[in-house]
Design brief:
By secondary structure, this protein is an alpha/beta fold. The protein contains five helices and five strands; from the N terminus they run E-E-H-E-H-E-H-E-H-H. The chain has a five-stranded mixed beta sheet.
């Protein structure tokens, strides 16, 4: 698994690649999301284009982070989940909880991302 972080004002783009499963991968994801939750005040976009597999623990970490962000009136956007992850989101009805976008451009043009830019004074 590989994780990259890009800061845009107080908004953050997190790019994940490979397989995210119980162990080091989920710990790294939880640590990064926790830091972003604490240190930033804008939206978080999770780029999933290169994710091969995301296990239930990793999905739970994303849900937990989303809940913390929403409690702070912030947003999390999921970008381009593969077909199996999209199906998992539909089956669990998490597609109604997360803002899911087909492309990063679509996510960055969304009102949720712009709200983070306004909140952070960026843009």
């Amino acid at each position: 698994m590989k994780i990259e972080e890009e800061q845009r004002g107080n908004n953050t783009i997190i790019r994940i690649a490979g397989t995210v499963s119980l162990g080091e991968g989920t710990r790294a994801l939880a640590d990064l999301l926790g830091r972003v939750d604490r240190e930033r005040s804008g939206a978080t976009a999770i780029e999933l284009t290169d994710v091969k597999h995301l296990d239930s623990t990793a999905l739970g970490i994303l849900v937990g982070s989303l809940r913390r962000l929403q409690a702070a009136n912030r947003e999390m956007l999921l970008v381009n989940p593969n077909e199996s992850l999209s199906m998992l989101l539909r089956v669990t009805q998490l597609n109604t909880v997360f803002a899911v976008h087909r492309t990063l451009k679509e996510a960055l043009d969304s009102p949720a991302w712009r709200k983070g830019e306004i909140a952070s004074g960026g843009g």
